[in-house]
Amino acid sequence: MSSNATNRRAAQQARARRRALTPSDQDMQLLSSYVFGHITLEEANELLHERGPFIIAICDYELATA
């Protein structure tokens, strides 16, 4: 296999890996709804879990001031 073909194949595989790890537009809208307070933490986690193999864990946190 020529080096051009090898490089092209490596680039295609890298793009496919990136796409597999990138949240969809629907996932991003769901997360935005949580961030803006339109849905609760539990609702966001449940909806993300229902969407399939791409699950984003959302953890509850507290801001503390000194």
Description:
The protein has 66 residues and is mainly α. 61% of the residues lie in helices and 0% in strands. It has helices at 3-21, 25-35, 41-50. Helix 2 (25-35) packs antiparallel against helix 3. The termini are far apart. 2% of the residues are buried. The model has no long low-confidence stretch (mean pLDDT 79).
Oligomer: single chain
- Name the overall outline: elongated
Number of β-strand runs? 0
The Rg value, from CA coordinates, equals 18 Å
Total helical segments: 3
Mean pLDDT: 79
Helical residue percent?
Answer: 55-70%
Return the structural class.
mainly alpha
Distance between the termini: 62 Å
What about the largest sheet? none
The SSE string, one letter per element, is HHH
Low-confidence stretches: none
In terms of DSSP E residues, the strand content is under 5%
